[in-house]
Structure formats: structure tokens, C-alpha cells
Amino acid sequence: MRITHHATTVITALILLATVSPGHAQDNETTEPFDVSGTISTGYHAYSNSGYRGKVSEYSVPSSGPEASINLQGSNRKNYFYLSSEMLDQDDQTHQLNLDLSRFLQMDLSYMKFNHFLDHDPLTNQSIVTDIDPNKNNGIVIEELKSGNTIKIASLPFVKFFANFRQYNKKGSRQATTAAKNNNCSSCHLNSANKRIDSSTNDIALGFEGTIKKVSFKYEYAGQNFDADGNAPTADYTSFYPFPIQGVNPYGDTPDLKKDSHKLSIRSQLPFSSSIFSSYQFGKRTNRDTNEDVDFSSFSARLSKFFNKFLACDVFYGKYTMDNDIANAYERDIGKGGVDLKTRFLKRTSGVLSYRWEDIDRENFSVNKTKKKTYSASLNTRIIKDLRLHLRYKKTKVRDPFTTENNSSAGDIVMTSLPEKENQFYASLNWTPVSIFSLNSSVRYTNSKNTGYSLDEDLYEFVVSAWYVPFRNTTLTCSFTTFKNDIDSAGSYKTVHFDELLYGNMPYDSTSNALHITTTYQATTRLALTGDITFTSSTADFDGKLGSNNLGDYSDLDIEQLQASAGFTYLINRNMSVYGNYQYHEYNDREENSFDGEYNLIRFGINYSF
Length: 610
Fold this sequence. Notes:
Blueprint: H1 5-19, E1 35-51, E2 65-75, E3 79-89, E4 92-101, E5 105-118, E6 128-131, E7 138-153, E8 156-178, E9 189-212, E10 215-227, E11 234-236, E12 248-250, E13 257-270, E14 274-287, E15 292-308, E16 311-324, E17 331-346, E18 349-363, E19 369-384, E20 387-399, E21 404-408, E22 411-415, E23 421-434, E24 437-450, E25 455-471, E26 474-488, E27 490-493, E28 502-505, E29 508-522, E30 527-542, E31 545-546, E32 549-550, H2 552-555, E33 557-571, E34 576-589, E35 597-609
Parallel strand pairs: 6-9
Antiparallel strand pairs: 1-2, 1-35, 2-3, 3-4, 4-5, 5-7, 7-8, 8-9, 9-10, 10-13, 11-12, 13-14, 14-15, 15-16, 16-17, 17-18, 18-19, 19-20, 20-23, 21-22, 23-24, 24-25, 25-26, 26-29, 27-28, 29-30, 30-33, 31-32, 33-34, 34-35
């Protein structure tokens, strides 16, 4: 694990500064012993996988082997700590430490490491492919170290300082692709190769916050450095079609980056039952390979006014600016604002009326200006003591939404899936008639339209969940979710160099249903059982044809997934117990069985508590 010297130095300085605070330096104070408790576990896990791994165990334990974990916590009158550590494999481990020293120093330190499986796409759906590494799967080992630190100084009781750090490393390989091939057009010729990954991202946030009378303030400096530190494959972009670059060039590469920003926020109480909040931020993003910069700044303000117990109002405004040092590069300014009117017109009923606006001005882009307005109304009411209802309606209008251009041999094709008009209705109902049962449900309907691009989309969502304790020793939780999306949209299709570009209507429908059940059962005073199961079924297809081509042959989906687990804990005596757990995951693609797979994991071991 690569840990920066500066991060280690600052963490050490914070601990030393806190431990010499007055609360720890009094010789005449008797030190109280820590009251420590914890659990130590050791065991074994057996892993097996059949079929394609990418859908069922993309992030799972990579191999069978021993496992161990420890949980410790301790405290005395002023100090507290909590330590948690679990290791399943050299590339699958998590560790966490929480520390509180008399409130003068509070530290949250965590580390995790896991393996991300990545396959190698054979690109069989492409016309012509040059693959340097065919059938060679990839994988990345990911490590993350985070430290959050807050420190108080006795002589400055109205302010506290913070220093937060994060380091995120990725090492391994992944597939990189590019649309280019020597002496051929780039519309249907692809190059592919596995790319070595050895990147590191370092984040730091330093600042302070406090309150003086009615004014609260916060300052934060944030810095980030990204080092790619990998090698990129190359391709020859010489082509008889115009191309932004020519000759042999790398692809799939990410430049080294640096980002710095400063942010100041102020909140203050004002006369006449009102308050104001304001923040200003500025910073710079730098491509360290080319030394080209992007400068950005933002400002936001919110004024809140409480008129009486029946009426309150918020007015807000924000501005974001991005300037690019590269000539003729993309730039934008975003202005936004709005008002919220809150009312409580009945004892058990409240409502909110809202208005939002957003204006985006772009430079060097196909759409120069986008204007967006949103109106919404919501209602919260407790119909009876145990029944709560929430209703919300939102209407959005967009003028000239964001688009992209595909520059091809057939000419410039302007595309977007963003709407010009959107209407959304949402309702939720919560019912808790008795302390051992609750029922929650929600429904959402969204209609989106863009007449300029022949887009008409209907989205339906429904969720129902319940929690039930039928017996003193049994808990049952279940939920069902259904999602349906109907899209009427136009599309284009083109296969090889000089075929006619086909354009027409391509309706797209998708449906997803998920059922989840979890139960816990205290069979005896010594034996506890757990179990859960999740079943998901998803379908999607294009209903239209372009010429003689059925788009469903390329994009139809019919997928079923099953995830289940069962476990037990048996108490041998006051300090010792045994545990066992079984996990199963199945993925079944009815359209393309090469993605089918199964995953099994059995874990068992012994716990010692003290």
C-alpha cells in the first residue's frame, strides 16, 4: 500500500497535539482503566464458481482458504475506541479504527482491499476487429485508505479543525478499445488490447469550522492528485477519412491530473425570524501531461424566512463558471435559482410549492444555451394516527437540451435522449397499525417527451415492503419492486462502409421485477438462524425493424437472477460460539447463455467473546 509521507506526518501531528491537551496533562488526575470487550473469530471459507464469473462473482472472494476477524471496543470516562478487522484473503480484507480522545481528537481510519474481476470482450458483434490479447481476462486489485480527523484546542472552544485523507490505488489490467485501423475507415474497424493499470488517487481536505454567537463558518481546502502510471497500447490512425489525429498514437490512456479548490461557507441568523447561508468556491483542474488548466468557480446563497407556524419561505441562487485554457475547447456557465414556499394549513397536513430555474451557456459546443424550468407541489398528511400519505407532482420544461454529434461518413448526426417536457407523479403510503407490523408502498409515474427528436417515454415504478414480527423470536422482512419503461424513439442503423444509413422508429420496452425476503429466527436461547432470498427477472427488447434488420437480434434481454443465503450461530457457552453461512448466486441469460454462471460460498468457524 503506497501511503504518502505528508498524510502520515499530519496524522501523527494531530494525535500528538490532541494528547498534550489540558485534559491529558494533569498529573494529579488518576487515569481510569479502559473497559474493553470484543470478539475474535477464525474459520474457513470454501468458494466455487461454474460458468461465467463476471455476472455472479465480479467482486467476490477470489479463492478458498482460512479467514479471521476481530472486533474490539473500549472506553473510560473520556476516551473511546473501536477496532474492526476482517481478512478473507490476501486480496479481500477490511479494517477500521474509530478513536475519540476526550473530544479533543476524533479519528476514523479505514482500509480495504478487494479484487475486481474483468473479462475480455471478444467484440464478435463488430465487423472487423484487431485484438492483440484475445481470450485473456483481466482483473484489478483495489486498495483504499481513508482517514478522517477532527481536532479541538482548549484555548479555542468555538472552532474545530479537520484533516481528511484518502488514497485509492488500482493495479492490474483492463481491456482498451479504439475505433481505428491502418488504412481503413474508423466507422467499423476496432483495435483492442489489454492495458496495464497501476494508478493512484490521493485526496486531502484541510480546514476549520466554528460558531461565534449567531454566525457559523467553515473553510475547506481540497486537493487531489491522480497518477496513471500505466502503459497504453497504440494504434495507427492513418485513414482515408478525416480524423482528429494521424499516425501511431496511444489509446485507452488517462492523463495525470491535479485539482485544487478553496471553499468558504457562512451561515447566520438574521432579525425577523430569518437566516442566510452563502458559500463561494474556486479552484483549478490541471492536466499534468500537457500543463493545460480548467478554472472553475461557484457561488450559492439561500435566504430563509419563517413568517409564522403556518408559513415559511426559502429563496436561493447559484452560479457556476468553467473556463478552459485550451483554445476552442468546451466551456460553460450555469446559473440556477428558485423558491420554496412551505405551509402547514392543518394540524396533520403540510405542503411545499417549489419553482426552479437553470440557465446553461456553453462555448464551442453544438448547443449554446439550455434553459430549464421546474414546478413542483408536494403534500404530507397523516390521514389517521397510523397512516401517512405523501403526494408530489413535478413538471419540467427544457429548451434546447444537451445533444451529441456523431461525425460519420453519412454526415453529422445529432442525438439526444433528454426530454423537452417531463411530468412526474409520486405517491407513498406508510401504515403502522401495531408495533409489530409496518407496511410501506410507493408509486412513481414519469412521462418524458422531445418532439424534435421523436422521443416519448413512460416510466412506471412500484415498491411495496413490509416488516412483521409474528412471534417474539421471529422477524420477517419482504419487499417487491416492479419497474417498466416504454420508449418510442427514432434510431439509425449502419453496418459497413457505403451502405445506406437507415433511420426509423425503434420502440424499446423493458420490465424488471424483484422480490426480496429476509428472516431471522431465534430457535433456542443458544441457536439463531438467518436467511434471505432475492429473485430478479428482467426483460427488454426493440420492437422495430430498420429495413430487413431486426434490432432485437442485437439488444433483446431476458435475464433471471437468484441470490440466497442461510446462516446460523450457536452459543456453546458464555464466551464461545460457532457460526456457519452459505451463499448462492445464479445468473441465467435466456438470450445469450455464454453469460450464465453460478457462485457458491460456504463459511464456518468459531467466535470467542470477552
